[in-house]
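Translate structure to sequence.
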């Protein structure tokens, strides 16, 4: 058991070191922050979606922005499209699971909004349909995927590809980069003197 634990720590550390050394990812993070801040300053909103653990990330990050991250400040317009069971089951029943997020993008998305699309494989059909619906409405798409990017990468304005093919490592990377995104949006929207 100790060997397994040591190996998992080693893989997690290697994953974080790869992220820390990725200059392109850091540039993309700055671009994504600018995109989100521009949307929020323009009276637009951020929309988040994913499946399973990625649904949890969508809710987590929307919560960090609506409530607070590092410090108290006004709430920011962020919506997780994963939370309304009546809407999700109605769309699933009437149109099929592949449309669970696309239909919501059609109803709620406005030009200038940002859709944060989370898929470890980059190939989740309902995320791909949502990204297509977003683009059709002038909604920017920020993707979170694994190393390959899948079919989501070409649909995204910016795509954060984690340096791994293992779902746990991809999700750990998503959580870290997602937290950075929330913290930087918060600090840009409401500068705070830490002293």
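Result:
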């Amino acid at each position: 058991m100790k060997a397994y634990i040591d190996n998992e720590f080693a893989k997690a550390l290697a994953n974080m070191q790869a992220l820390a050394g990725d200059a392109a990812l850091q540039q993309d993070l700055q671009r994504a922050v600018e995109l989100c801040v521009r949307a929020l300053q323009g009276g637009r909103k951020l929309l988040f979606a994913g499946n399973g653990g990625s649904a949890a990330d969508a809710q987590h990050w929307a919560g960090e922005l609506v409530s607070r991250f590092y410090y108290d400040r006004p709430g920011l317009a962020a919506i997780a499209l994963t939370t309304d069971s009546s809407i999700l089951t109605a769309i699933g029943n009437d149109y099929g699971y592949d449309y669970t997020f696309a239909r919501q993008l059609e109803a709620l998305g406005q030009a200038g909004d940002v859709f944060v699309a989370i898929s470890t494989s980059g190939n989740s059909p309902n995320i791909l349909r949502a990204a297509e619906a977003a683009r059709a409405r002038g909604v920017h798409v920020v993707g979170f995927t694994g190393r390959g990017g899948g079919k989501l990468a070409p649909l995204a304005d910016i795509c954060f590809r984690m340096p791994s093919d293992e779902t746990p490592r991809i999700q750990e990377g998503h959580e870290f980069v997602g937290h950075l995104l929330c913290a930087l949006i918060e600090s840009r929207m409401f500068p705070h003197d830490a002293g």
